[in-house]
Write a structure and sequence with these properties.
Blueprint lengths: L13 H21 L4 H16 L12 H8 L12 H16 L14 H8 L2 H13 L4 H14 L5 H7 L8 E4 L1 H10 L4 E5 L5 H15 L5 E6 L11 H12 L3 H15 L3 E5 L14 H9 L2 E5 H9 L10 H4 L7 E6 L10 H7 L5 H4 L4 E5 L1
Parallel strand pairs: 1-7, 2-3, 2-5, 3-4, 5-6
Antiparallel strand pairs: 6-7
The chain binds 6-O-phosphono-beta-D-fructofuranose (F6P).
The site of 6-O-phosphono-beta-D-fructofuranose (F6P) has 15 residues, from α8 and α14.
């Protein structure tokens, strides 16, 4: 494996700094507006917002679930500004603190309540998803290969505007081309695994998950894959990241539609019933580390499938490491530690990127950062 580049510390990135000083307080305001929170919950949420803006990072209360583990993981960062810690680490801890502030992990009424559910449900009931579901009737008319590529691109671009991102960036409709396109290689990988099992590490609920489910249906129904293991988050995370509940909501959205979408929902329900679609999770998906630190059980699971496809920006950061890589360092080199063939479908919403051709980088402009963070560019990379 190639030498590691320096980790992204938020103070070195205007984009990452904004996540703490603007996006997180705005998210907390939305949560305060969406739920009948009691004074203690409100106080805890406001304190967390203030901490993010100009306070210092406090550890979990000593009696909180997982407090010892987080104490050990974060010893070097507590007592310092949030932006002084590695971006990936601190964002993950923020979501642990956010859930803790409303009592998600405690016995009682709020245990297990997804505080992001109102936002996810609004998206699922909205026009974007309605148009996406309706468009499946046209896609069904395409030849099999064209249909596969159309569904792959729809799963890719479905990642464009996750709900956390929209808090400060809005839901943009502008898209540019792909900065890297290994889709031929990815299809070859899937064909060579024909009839086998592939892991898909999901990202967001709502329109992205609908697109992912439609792609999964296509891969199974066309016989390309015999089995898909869909990995979701064990708890609400990064606002719109999908949990098992969200997969259920998306499946029901498909089943409630007319036309081709309903057929997709019925076939997927059948695939789940006979084990061709398995939904799985692991605590590591909410841990503050990249995949080089994955536990042995997860490593063994990824090693046992023909390929793993990771969706979205966060999974990309965790796959290649949230680091200041030279953008032309090869994707295969950076991901060589991964246990088996791996591919990424990601719209670019943070600083990190690898695997670009020098000519592509020259066109994008290495110094500007908008193409890296605005969600207007995307990539498909495969090892
Ligand atoms: O839903 P995605 O594609 O993983 O994007 C979430 C991204 O949003 C951010 O929280 C901020 O852009 C990134 O840190 C993260 O990578």
């Amino acid at each position: 494996m190639t030498d590691q580049a320096p980790a992204i510390i938020s103070t070195d990135s205007p984009f990452a700094t904004d996540v703490f000083v603007k996006r997180h307080p705005a998210l907390i305001e939305r949560i305060l507006g969406a739920w009948p929170l009691d004074p203690e919950q409100q106080r805890a949420l406001r304190a967390l917002a203030d901490e993010n803006v100009d306070g210092v990072m406090e550890p979990l209360p000593a009696d909180a679930p997982g407090a010892d583990q987080w104490q050990a993981w974060g010893r070097a960062y507590y007592g310092k500004p949030w932006t002084a810690a590695p971006f990936l680490w601190a964002e993950s801890f923020f979501y642990r603190r956010l859930l803790g502030a409303v009592g998600y992990f405690d016995d009682g009424l709020w245990q297990g309540v997804d505080i992001f559910a109102p936002f996810k449900q609004a998206e699922l009931a909205g026009e974007v998803v309605a148009a996406e579901v309706g468009a499946l009737d046209h896609i069904a008319e395409l030849a099999e290969d064209d249909r596969g590529q159309a569904l792959l691109l729809s799963s890719l671009w479905g990642n464009r505007a996750d709900l956390g991102f929209q808090i400060t960036a809005g839901r943009g409709s502008e898209t540019s081309g792909l900065v890297a396109d290994d889709s031929d290689q990815l299809w070859k990988l899937l064909q060579s695994a024909r009839g086998g099992s592939v892991a898909i590490v999901a990202d967001n609920a709502g329109s992205e998950m609908i697109a992912d489910l439609v792609l999964i249906d296509h891969l199974i129904t066309s016989g390309t894959l015999g089995e898909v293991v869909l990995y979701v988050k064990p708890a609400p995370y990064y606002v719109s990241d999908a949990t098992i509940r969200d997969v259920g909501d998306c499946l029901r959205r498909l089943l409630a539609a007319d036309g081709a979408a309903r057929g997709v929902g019925e076939r997927l329900r059948g695939a789940a019933a006979d084990g061709r679609l398995r939904v799985w999770t692991d605590a590591f998906f909410c841990a503050p580390f990249d995949f080089t630190a994955m536990p042995d059980n997860l490593r063994a699971q990824f090693a046992s499938v023909s390929a793993t496809i990771l969706k979205g920006d966060l999974n990309y950061r965790r796959l290649v490491g949230d680091r200041w890589w030279d953008p032309t360092v090869p994707f295969g080199e950076v991901t060589s530690y991964f246990p088996g063939p791996v591919a990424a479908l990601r719209t670019l919403k943070s600083d990190v990127v690898v695997g670009l051709e020098p000519g592509t980088l020259a066109t994008l402009g290495d110094s500007g950062t908008a193409w890296r963070t605005a969600g207007t560019h995307a990539l498909i990379q495969a090892s």
